[in-house]
C-alpha cells in the first residue's frame, strides 16, 4: 500500500503562534481519513500543507512521493484534488457548471479563451453525470443550491483523476437532505474501485461517510489521536479533543456524538 502523504514533525507558525504543532501523520493510498477537531485546531492548515499550498515552518512533508521542499509545485498540484470554500469563492458566479469542472484540468477558475480538448470536455460531462449533476451542466454556478454547489466543487476536484483527494468541510451548511445525499455519494465514491486516497475535514462525526477508515483528531494544532475509526472515535478521545464529556455511538457505519449533560 503506497504512502501518499507523510508529515514528519510538521509545524506551521502563523503570526508567531504554532497553529500546527509537531504533527506526525501518514496516509496510505487505500485509506480514507477524516480530520476532526474544534474551531482553530489547525485542520484547514494541515490540509493546505497536504495540498502543497502551504509549506511547513519546520519538519518535513512528503506528498505523493515528492519532497514538498524540492518538487516543482506545477507538476505536483494537478495530482491532488482539493475542494474548499476558499477555492469555491474564486469561482465566478456566472460560470457555466460544465466550465467550473472543465477548468480544473487547466488549474484555473473562470473560463477565458483557453482551447479545451474534446477529451476534457467529455470527461467533464462524465464526471458531472457521476455526481448526478449532468442536468445542471449548462446552468450558471451562482444559481445552484448550496448542496448542488458542493457537489460541483467535488466534481471539479476529481476532474483530473487525482491520486489524493482533499475535501475541506464538504457538508458544511447543507440541510439534512442535501447532507445525506452528499454523504451517500461520497461514501460510494470512497468505496469504489480506483478511488484515490481521501482526506476530509469536518467538525461533526455525523458527517463521516460510510467507507471512511481512519481519523486524525486535532486540538490546539497537536494530534490528540490518530488511527482506525473504531479505535479513535471513542467518548474518551473525542471528548478530550473537544473538551467535553461525550456519548459516542456508531450504527451501521455512521457515527453520532452528544454531550452527556
Ligand atoms: N494567515 C493566518 N494568519 C494568522 N493566523 C492564521 C492564519 N491562518 C490561520 N490562522 C490561525 O491558525 C489557527 C488554525 O486555523 P485553521 O483554519 O487551520 O483551523 P481549523 O481547525 O480549520 O478551524 P475551523 O474549524 O474554525 O475552520 C487559527 O487560530 C487561525 O486563526
Automatic annotation (TrEMBL):
A Pfam short name: ABC_tran
Keyword set includes ATP-binding: yes
ABC transporter domain sequence ranges: 5-245
Swiss-Prot/TrEMBL keywords: ATP-binding, Nucleotide-binding
Matching SUPFAM superfamilies: P-loop containing nucleoside triphosphate hydrolases
Database matches in InterPro entries: AAA+_ATPase, ABC_transporter-like_ATP-bd, P-loop_NTPase
Any one GO MF annotation of this record: ATP binding
Protein name: ABC transporter, ATP-binding protein
Organism of derivation: Frondihabitans sucicola
Amino acid at each position: 500500500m503506497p504512502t501518499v502523504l507523510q508529515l514528519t514533525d510538521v509545524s506551521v507558525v502563523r503570526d508567531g503562534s504554532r497553529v500546527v504543532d509537531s504533527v506526525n501523520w501518514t496516509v496510505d493510498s487505500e485509506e480514507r481519513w477524516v480530520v476532526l477537531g474544534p474551531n482553530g485546531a489547525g485542520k484547514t492548515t494541515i490540509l493546505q500543507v497536504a495540498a502543497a499550498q502551504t509549506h511547513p515552518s519546520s519538519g518535513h512533508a512528503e506528498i505523493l512521493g515528492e519532497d514538498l521542499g524540492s518538487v516543482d509545485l506545477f507538476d505536483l498540484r494537478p495530482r491532488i484534488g482539493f475542494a474548499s470554500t476558499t477555492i469555491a469563492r474564486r469561482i465566478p458566479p456566472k460560470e457555466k457548471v460544465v466550465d467550473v469542472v472543465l477548468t480544473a484540468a487547466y488549474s484555473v477558475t473562470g473560463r477565458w479563451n483557453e482551447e479545451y480538448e474534446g477529451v476534457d470536455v467529455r470527461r467533464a460531462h462524465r464526471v458531472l453525470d457521476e455526481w448526478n449533476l449532468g442536468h445542471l451542466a449548462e446552468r450558471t454556478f451562482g444559481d445552484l443550491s448550496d448542496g448542488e454547489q458542493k457537489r460541483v466543487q467535488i466534481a471539479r476536484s476529481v476532474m483530473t483523476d487525482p491520486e489524493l483527494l482533499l475535501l475541506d468541510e464538504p457538508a458544511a451548511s447543507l440541510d439534512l437532505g442535501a447532507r445525506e445525499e452528499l454523504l451517500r455519494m461520497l461514501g460510494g465514491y470512497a468505496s469504489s474501485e480506483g478511488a484515490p486516497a481521501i482526506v476530509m475535514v469536518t467538525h461533526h462525526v455525523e458527517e463521516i461517510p460510510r467507507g471512511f477508515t481512519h481519523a486524525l483528531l486535532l486540538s490546539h494544532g497537536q494530534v490528540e489521536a490518530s488511527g482506525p475509526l473504531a479505535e479513535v472515535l471513542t467518548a474518551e478521545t473525542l471528548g478530550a479533543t473537544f473538551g467535553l464529556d461525550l456519548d459516542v455511538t456508531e450504527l451501521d457505519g455512521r457515527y453520532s456524538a452528544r454531550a452527556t449533560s
